[in-house]
Amino acid sequence: YCKYDWFIEDYCMKYCGPDSANLVQRRETWTESVIKFSPKGSYLSTCHKQGIALWGGPNFKRVARFIHPQVSYFQFSPCERYFVTYSKQPISPEDPQNLILWETRSETNRRAFTLPVLNYWPYFKWSHDGQYFATITGDNLSIYTTPSMKLLNKKLNVQNIRDFVWCPCENWIAYWQSENKDIPARVTIMSLPSCEPIASKNLFNVTNIEIFWQNSGNYLAVKVDRIMKNRESENVFEIFRLREKDVPVENFEIKSKVLSLSWDPKGPRFALIQGDQGRTDVSFYRIGEKIAQIGKTLMNKKCNTIKWSPLGQYCVLAGLNNFAFDGVLEFWDIGSDTPTMMEAGEHFMVTHLAWDPTGRYVCSSNSYGGHSVENGYFMWSFQGTKLYETSLEGFVQFQWRPRPPSLLTDAHLKEIKKNMKSYARDFEIKDKLSKSKASKELIEKRRRVYDEYMAYRKRKDQELKALCLQYEEIRSDSVEEEFVEEIVEFFIKEEVEPANDTKE
Description:
Structural class: mainly beta
């Protein structure tokens, strides 16, 4: 996490355990602005007046530096091979370029652009593997390829293009075009590098469109906002089934206003928040042969955000940056046919919520940028148990360090899950230890006393064995003596007493 102390930042890196966090690194003035981990957790980036520094290794030594004064925004590519920096000021009066693409390891400038002042970020959106990056320039979709940093073929002329989103696991782009006179709005999914369309659909009476990819790329949800003849708005969802033949599209309508949609990262489920900011309902849906609702709609929930566990199935309903919601956090299990609330908690004035990469912990935080009082963070288990809380004056930012993809294959993961019962004993011992009421200091003291006693006992056993050997040697060298028994008599004294004669 990062916190401000007037104009001095104090950055701490901690390892999260079941009951506390152990300090890994702590440095003052480590950054002058925000911090950011790379997508795979290999680097930590810090922002300075002269540019950006990257830190890595066991002790987080500086491994790279990018000289670009007054950087406003910066970004890693998903593969971590490239790094993007942007400043509202040009590099120099002679060089007006203000957006630079760097190669991370060599720290070389691979390409630079001259852009106007940007009020949004990122300017470039990257494909999942870092092979392509793209942006919208007017009515053109500009797609660049790495490592050449050149345009892929030519700029694609897409009239009235408004937005595009990369697929999380394939080199596919989904983009939408707004209506223009008699030409309807259109959603298109395009494959690269061929730039051939995979699927598309025309839409009418559209005011806005939002695109949501599922993590596995099996489905694409398109939220369509429409204005009807009676001037009322409605939400229609178009679900593209990308892995099925001819990419069928299924739609369904939601009568109430939909505030957000979020996919389960590991399954064919998604959640909707409906209603107004002051009163919201939550619904869960599963995609099978048809789209079916999971259980009943959860009514009158104090939430405006749904955060899914990275492993799926579990989610948290939270009301962020809203006093009316009282910082209520609800932990839900969506694995069965009926959603089950495991636990409910509260973190007043909560501004951010973040799952750790393992899906075991959730951190809720109240940053200085959102509120100037009660800054700090709470740590929760995935089941909603509050593990501990920390108050930090001037607390600004909290980030989990990402983990690289697992080296295990799907077959290995299945084998581990199959033999999970054989590991149950070790896990139970660890669980009992973590649930013990004894403090960590007391456990360490007991362990230290036990180790000292065992070392003392071992030392004394060795000394006893050495003494036994010495006694045996002494006994073997001794000669047994022969003893002769003699009886000695001593004359001490002799007494003579006269005998008295008795006359009758």
